[in-house]
C-alpha cells in the first residue's frame, strides 16, 4: 500500500526539497513501520524525528490525517492504505 | 497566505488551518538553511547559513567563540585586542552549549554542538571559519541501542592531547563520555564509564545529568579526569577502561551524608599542563584544590564573598593562577550585591583578590555559566567571559582591567578563545563586507571598538 508523508519545511533539505513524499509498505503496517520505510529512502529524517531509543522526539508531533498519534497509539498506530501522515514541529521554545 | 486566511470570515478561519500551516512551513524552510551546490540527493552534506556575514580571519588573530541559547557568535581581533569584529548568529535559534577551535595538524576547524529543541542536537564543524558547515545525515554522537539512552545535549567538546591530533572527546547529557580517534568523523561511547556501577545512582542537577568537563592529563596518555553533575569527579588510569570516583574531601550540601564517595555536584575542574598532578575544583558550594591527582581535596575558599559559582579558569601560563566568578548562593545565582567581580588566586588558592576595574559595580546581578570563561595564550593573557545577560567582557592584562567587548547577545552559555596560526596564509576569502551592497543594513558583522559599547 502507499502512504503519503507531509514533510515540514526544516526537514525538506533531506527529501530533495519535496513537501510531500510517498512510500510503499505492506498492508497493515503501523506508524513505526511506515516511518522506517521513509527513513530508508530519506535517511536524514530519522535522527531528527526519532531518538536513539526509537521514540518520537519530544517536540515533534505526527498526525495521521488530522489526528495526533499521541491519542491513537503512538508509533503503534495502524496506518490505512493511502493515509496522509504529517510530521509537524510542536509549539515550543522560549 | 497567512494574511489572506486571517481576513476571511471568522467562521472560516479554522477551516483554513492547513493553508496557514503550509505558509508557516514555507517560511521556516526558507529561513533555516540554503543548499550547497554539491549536493547528495539524500540531502546536502554541507550547510551554508544564509544571511550571515562572516569573519575575515588572519594569521595570529584572536578568535572568540561565543555560544548562546539562540545561536553562535564569532568574534575576532588582531593581537592588540582593541577592536573586535562580530559575526553571527550562526545556527539561529539553536542552543550552543559547546564549541572549540581545533588548530592541530594545520587544521583551522571550528566545532559546534548545535541543539535544536525540535530536531535534536548535532555536532557540526567548519574548516573556513563558518562559511561552510558539515550537515550530517545522521547524528555522529549517538548511544548504542543496548545502552537504552538517547542523546539530549552535548555539553563539552574537548581536544585530545597535541600529540594525538585525531583524538577528540565529547561530554554529553545524559552523563556519558564519547571518544573519536579519527578527527571527529566517528564517535564511540566510552563504555568503561557508562557501565560504572555508580552511574545508576548519579542524580540530575538543575541542568540535567551531564558530563560537562573533560581533562586529559597532558603527561600521561592513560590518565584522564571527567566531572559529572551530579556524580562528581572520576579518573581513569588505563585510558578509559576503568574509572574511580575522586571526591574525597568534597562536601555535598544536598545529601544526608556530607562527604560521600560520589554524588557531588561538581561545576568545573581545571589543571595546568605544567603541574598536571594538581587540580582545582569549583563545586556546588565549595572551592577545592587537590595536589595528588584528585585523591583528596582541600578547601581553598578563603577570601571570596561566596564559594558558590559555576565557572573556573586556569591561567594559560601560570600554574598557581585560577579565576572564578562567585555568585551569591544556589537560591540567588547572581553576583553578590550587584557587583560583577572576577576573583583570582595567584598562589594556588592561598588567597583570592577581586578584579573589578572596568566591570559594573552597581546593579550588576550577573551569572557566568560553567563554560563561559576562557583565555587566549598570548604573553599577556587575554581573559574573556560572557554573562547570561548577553555581555562579553575581556581583559588583555590578565584580569587587571576589563572592557565590555559586546552586549545584547542572547544568554551566553559558553566562551572559547583561541589564537589562529596559519603560517601567514589567510585561509579565508576577503571579507564579504566589501561585496555587500550599501543598502543591506541588516549585515550581521559589526565592528566594535572595545570600551565604547558600554
Task: Tell me what portion of residues of chain A adopts beta-strand conformation.
Answer: 15-25%
Strands of chain A, count: 5
Number of strands of chain B: 31
Give the largest interface: A-B, 28 and 35 residues
Low-confidence stretches of chain B: 24-38, 424-444, 450-454
Describe this structure in words.
The complex is a heterodimer of chains A (94) and B (454). With 94 residues, chain A is α+β, with helices and mostly antiparallel strands. Helices cover 16% and strands 24% of the residues of chain A. Chain A has 2 helices and 5 strands. Chain A has a 5-stranded mixed beta sheet with strand order 2-1-5-3-4, covered by helices on one side. Chain B is mainly beta. Chain B folds into 2 domains: 1-28, no CATH class; 48-453, YVTN repeat-like/Quinoprotein amine dehydrogenase (Methylamine Dehydrogenase, Chain H), CATH 2.130.10. Chain B has helices at residues 2-6, 10-13, 17-32, 191-194, and strands spanning 34-35, 46-48, 62-68, 71-77, 83-90, 95-102, 109-116, 120-126, 133-134, 153-159, 168-173, 176-180, 188-189, 210-216, 224-229, 232-236, 244-245, 266-272, 275-283, 287-290, 298-299, 308-314, 322-327, 342-345, 353-355, 373-375, 383-386, 392-395, 403-406, 412-419, 446-449. In chain B, the strands form 8 sheets. Chain B has a 5-stranded antiparallel beta sheet, with no helix packed on it. In chain B, strand 22 (308-314) and strand 23 (322-327) form a beta hairpin. Chain B is globular, with a radius of gyration of 23 Å. Chain B starts with a helix and ends in a 5-residue tail after the last strand. Residues 24-38, 424-444 and 450-454 of chain B have low confidence and may be disordered.
Quick rundown:
By secondary structure, chain A is an alpha+beta fold.
What keywords describe this structure?
heterodimer, A: 94 residues, alpha+beta, 5-stranded mixed beta sheet, 2 helices, B: 454 residues, mainly beta, Methylamine Dehydrogenase, Chain H, 5-stranded antiparallel beta sheet, 4-stranded antiparallel beta sheet, 31 strands, disordered C terminus
Amino acid at each position: 500500500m502507499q502512504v503519503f508523508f507531509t514533510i515540514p519545511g526544516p526537514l525538506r533539505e533531506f527529501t530533495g526539497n519535496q513537501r510531500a513524499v510517498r512510500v510503499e509498505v505492506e498492508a497493515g503496517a503501523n506508524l513505526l513501520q511506515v516511518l522506517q520505510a521513509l527513513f530508508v529512502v530519506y535517511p536524514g529524517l530519522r535522527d531528527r524525528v526519532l531518538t536513539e531509543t526509537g521514540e518520537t522526539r519530544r517536540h515533534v508531533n505526527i498526525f495521521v490525517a488530522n489526528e495526533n498519534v499521541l491519542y491513537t497509539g503512538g508509533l503503534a498506530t495502524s496506518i490505512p492504505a493511502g493515509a496522509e501522515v504529517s510530521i509537524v514541529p510542536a509549539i515550543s521554545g522560549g | 497566505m497567512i494574511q489572506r486566511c486571517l481576513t476571511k470570515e471568522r467562521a472560516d478561519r479554522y477551516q483554513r488551518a492547513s493553508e496557514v500551516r503550509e505558509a508557516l512551513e514555507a517560511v521556516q524552510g526558507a529561513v533555516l538553511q540554503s543548499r550547497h551546490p554539491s549536493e547528495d540527493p539524500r540531502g546536502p552534506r554541507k550547510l551554508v547559513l544564509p544571511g550571515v556575514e562572516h569573519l575575515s580571519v588572519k594569521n595570529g588573530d584572536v578568535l572568540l567563540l561565543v555560544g548562546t541559547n539562540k545561536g553562535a557568535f564569532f568574534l575576532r581581533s588582531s593581537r592588540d585586542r582593541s577592536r573586535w569584529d562580530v559575526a553571527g548568529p550562526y545556527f539561529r535559534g539553536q542552543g550552543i552549549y559547546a564549541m572549540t577551535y581545533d588548530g592541530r595538524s594545520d587544521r583551522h576547524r571550528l566545532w559546534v554542538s548545535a541543539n535544536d529543541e525540535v530536531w535534536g542536537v548535532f555536532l557540526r564543524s567548519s574548516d573556513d571559519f563558518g562559511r561552510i558547515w558539515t550537515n550530517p545525515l545522521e547524528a555522529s554522537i549517538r548511544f548504542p541501542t543496548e545502552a537504552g539512552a538517547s542523546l539530549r545535549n552535548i555539553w563539552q567538546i574537548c581536544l585530545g592531547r597535541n600529540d594525538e591530533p585525531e583524538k577528540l572527546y565529547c561530554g554529553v547529557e545524559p552523563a556519558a563520555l564519547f571518544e573519536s580517534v579519527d578527527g571527529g568523523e566517528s564517535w564511540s561511547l566510552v563504555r568503561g564509564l557508562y557501565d560504572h556501577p555508580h552511574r545508576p545512582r548519579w542524580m540530575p542537577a538543575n541542568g540535567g545529568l551531564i558530563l560537562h568537563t573533560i581533562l586529559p592529563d597532558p603527561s600521561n596518555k592513560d590518565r584522564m579526569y571527567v566531572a559529572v553533575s551530579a556524580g562528581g569527579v572520576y579518573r581513569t588510569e588505563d585510558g578509559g577502561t576503568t574509572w574511580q570516583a575522586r571526591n574525597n574531601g568534597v562536601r555535598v550540601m544536598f545529601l544526608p551524608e556530607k562527604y560521600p564517595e560520589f554524588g557531588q555536584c561538581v561545576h568545573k575542574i581545571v589543571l595546568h599542563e605544567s603541574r598536571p598532578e594538581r587540580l582545582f575544583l569549583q563545586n556546588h558550594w565549595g572551592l577545592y584544590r587537590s595536589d595528588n591527582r584528585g585523591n583528596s581535596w582541600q578547601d581553598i575558599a578563603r577570601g571570596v564573598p561566596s564559594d558558590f559559582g559555576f565557572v573556573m579558569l586556569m591561567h594559560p601560563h601560570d600554574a598557581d593562577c585560577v579565576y572564578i566568578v562567585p555568585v551569591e548562593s544556589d537560591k540567588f545565582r547572581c553576583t553578590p550585591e550587584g557587583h560583577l567581580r572576577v576573583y583570582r588566586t595567584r598562589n594556588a588558592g592561598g588567597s583570592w583578590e577581586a578584579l573589578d576595574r572596568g566591570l559594573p559595580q552597581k546593579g550588576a546581578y550577573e551569572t557566568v555559566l560553567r563554560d563561559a570563561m576562557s583565555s587566549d595564550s598570548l604573553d599577556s593573557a587575554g581573559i574573556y567571559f560572557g554573562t547570561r545577560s548577553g555581555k562579553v567582557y575581556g581583559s588583555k592584562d590578565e584580569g587587571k582591567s576589563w572592557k565590555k567587548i559586546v552586549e545584547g547577545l542572547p544568554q551566553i552559555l559558553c566562551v572559547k578563545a583561541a589564537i589562529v596560526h596559519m603560517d601567514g596564509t589567510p585561509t579565508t576569502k576577503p571579507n564579504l563586507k566589501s561585496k555587500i551592497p550599501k543598502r543591506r543594513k541588516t549585515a550581521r558583522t559589526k565592528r566594535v571598538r572595545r570600551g565604547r559599547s558600554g
